[in-house]
Design a protein that fits this description.
Oligomer: homodimer
Order of helices and strands of chain A: EHEEEHEHEHHEHHEHHEEHHHHEHHEEEH
CATH architecture of the largest domain in chain A: 3-Layer(aba) Sandwich
Number of helices of chain A: 16
Distance between the termini of chain A: 31 Å
Helix content of chain A: 25-40%
Structural class of chain A: alpha/beta
Number of strands of chain A: 14
Strand order of the largest sheet of chain A: 5-2-1-6-7-8
Number of domains of chain A: 2
Mean pLDDT of chain A: 96
Radius of gyration of chain A: 25 Å
Low-confidence stretches of chain A: none
CATH superfamily of the largest domain in chain A: Crotonobetainyl-coa:carnitine coa-transferase, domain 1
CATH topology of the largest domain in chain A: Rossmann fold
Chain lengths: 388, 388
């Protein structure tokens, strides 16, 4: 590529009232893409996430992992002087992001109608558990609640076991991604007609939007989808299988791949077996097929079979723990393991930005997460300078 | 709100070579936000997803659920005439989206360097398993493989059980969301300097980006995170608890909410119990706490406790199956359950668009998924009309 271009969101100013995860994850993505993110925190304590484990040298590495590259100013939104500073910030901003309970921003005097009346170009993005409208909008929500209420927990896990939560805060993270999409779409509309809008993202909505075939299976058939362990509900083989020492995953759903799989592992007779002749039949008899395959896979370790399957062109892979996932040279080559710093300056590693744009910079070192109120002087000086 | 504004992405033309899920999910979001999406399919069979269950009247409801509102034209990319049509389409397009294996588009003659040389404003978005670069880029990948290789499966499920895959195709869906973010960011850069870019999204990268605290816990402590059932790894109570008839989830991580919880369910002595005085202590003794809470919760059904906890302002909710999730009046009020049509015209219901933008239309009826090649005549007529 030629010379590196300015970051795609260069020039965009985001005022960020968000705390904990969903909102901060969204604004981190905006910062990674080049936006200037000014994090407005509560004086004294700041973002709750500053107290969340794990800690490195007494500082929250969790906080740093979702707040790199932002600036911080502490403002008491009930104090007149500080409120005036927030208004001055908003007058210079393109986007305000918040994840208070619906109604709370309005009670502070910064509700959508006040904002839009005074700053008609400003985009407000609100991330909440259930969205700004609807009968449940006032209910408090946390990740596990929307994972449970959306049905996501009901389709994850092994049948007959206690409920399983997706091991990451999927409700928050998905809402953060939809918030970024909403903000960027709203900016495009504003470029055309000059008006801001209110981006209203509900965590529950986001979970429903990614239920995928579960939602259409239920709506098309009236049958509630069941959890299916590591299996895909309608593709077989497409799951984890135990080898002698560890499980591997195999994704060989179509007939060609299935033939290659059974030939590669020395069970060629299965490709002629009428019981397993189509994906539909294999899915119906997935348990019988699993027993046959695992009896064979149990004769050698995972690494052996992964080599055999790679040679045969059968999609397969190891079930990595986090350490092994991050140790893959591919992950470093893709800059998905990057360094940043705690507010004190201590270096730590975190996940990189998965939005790879050719011709733009994707540095392996990311700017630090801010100290609470650490950018006050610079931010106030900027406000005093004329715009432009 | 006043009169409805034109859709945020109105005027945007997207040529869509994608199949199955990750790419089609991305282009569906673009279509929902107002882009014109022209789906280019293989003559004869079209998108593989047209053959995926569930079926309604012999047509794939799965296909319709991620392809509503798109147009379809069948083109044989190895035929000279059809290739010329694709070039004409691209000359009128803002974005080309594809999810072939890396290198396949180039072998067809539509690789990034050819596209960029001929159409310097065009944005190419590629979604693949491992991205366009790095040692694993040529490996075939499916959802279960990136869920396994990213570590996502290793943190989902109950300890000591066989691996659990997140019950939705999270690898594909997350990649689709990052692709939309990349496309919208690339459009913003192009608005500034006139140049297109290549948006390079890897499913594995996307999974790593949402591992959240698992990644920072490992990198900060060197300890591999364990699966933790329905529990949050560092907040307690924040999990599912069994009641007399069914489980509920409770999210009462801070000390105030914990006090409210134990008082509401008639165990006020726990708020004075030193063993459970802080979140850190509760997390350390989550099992003992679960036994005490469940002994009490077993005395009444879930519905009783949900009422008690709602009255006390303790965040809690039911563990819904998909049917119950969709039956919530809130879901309909939020237009997260919408109607669309199969290519033949048969109505079905699907999940709505979670990106709610005030002042823009969010119709409860969504345009149909296309018949294979169903829009050929209209698309060709459009190509024959002068631009503008």
């Amino acid at each position: 590529m030629d010379a590196v271009r300015s970051a795609p969101l260069a020039g965009l100013v985001v005022v960020d009232l968000t705390r904990v995860l969903a909102g901060p994850f969204a604004t981190m993505l905006l910062a990674d893409l080049g936006a200037r993110v000014i994090k407005v925190e509560q004086p004294g304590s700041g973002d709750d996430a500053r107290t969340f484990p794990p800690f490195v040298d007494g500082e929250s590495a969790y906080f740093a992992s979702v707040n790199r590259g932002k600036e911080s100013i502490a403002l008491d939104l009930k104090d007149e002087n500080d409120r005036a500073i927030l208004w001055r910030l908003l007058a210079r901003a393109d986007v305000l992001v918040e994840n208070f309970r619906p109604g709370a921003l309005e009670r502070l005097g910064f509700g959508w109608s006040s904002l839009h009346a005074r700053l008609p170009r400003l985009i407000l993005a609100s991330v909440s558990g259930f969205g700004q409208t609807g009968p449940l909008s006032q209910r408090p929500a946390y990740d596990v609640i929307v994972q449970a209420m959306s049905g996501m927990m009901s389709i994850t896990g092994h049948p007959g076991q206690p409920p399983v939560r997706v091991g990451t805060s999927l409700g928050d993270l998905t809402a953060g991604l939809f918030a970024v999409i909403g903000i960027l779409a709203a900016l495009r509309a504003r470029d055309r007609d000059g008006a801001g809008t209110w981006v209203d993202i509900g965590m529950l909505d986001g979970q429903l939007a990614i239920l995928e075939n579960a939602i259409v299976r239920y709506l098309a058939t009236g049958q509630d989808p069941e959890p299916s362990g590591s299996r895909h509900p309608s593709i077989t083989p497409f799951q984890a299988y135990a080898c002698a020492d560890a499980p591997i995953v195999i994704a060989a759903g179509n007939d060609t791949l299935f033939r290659r799989l059974v030939e590669a592992i020395g069970l060629p007779e299965l490709s002629e077996d009428e019981r397993f002749a189509t994906n539909a039949r294999r899915t119906e008899r997935w348990q019988a097929l699993q027993e046959i395959l695992e009896r064979r896979l149990a004769t050698a370790p995972a690494e052996h079979w992964l080599g055999v399957l790679a040679d045969a062109g059968v999609p397969a892979g190891p079930v990595h723990r986090v350490s092994a996932a991050l140790a893959e040279p591919h992950v470093t080559a893709r800059r998905m393991r990057v360094s940043t710093r705690l507010p004190s300056g201590t270096p730590i590693e975190v996940a990189g930005n998965p939005v790879k744009l050719w011709g733009f910079d994707d540095p392996p070192d990311r700017p630090a997460a801010p100290r609470l109120d650490g950018d006050r002087a610079a931010i106030l000086a900027w406000l005093d300078r004329p715009e432009g």
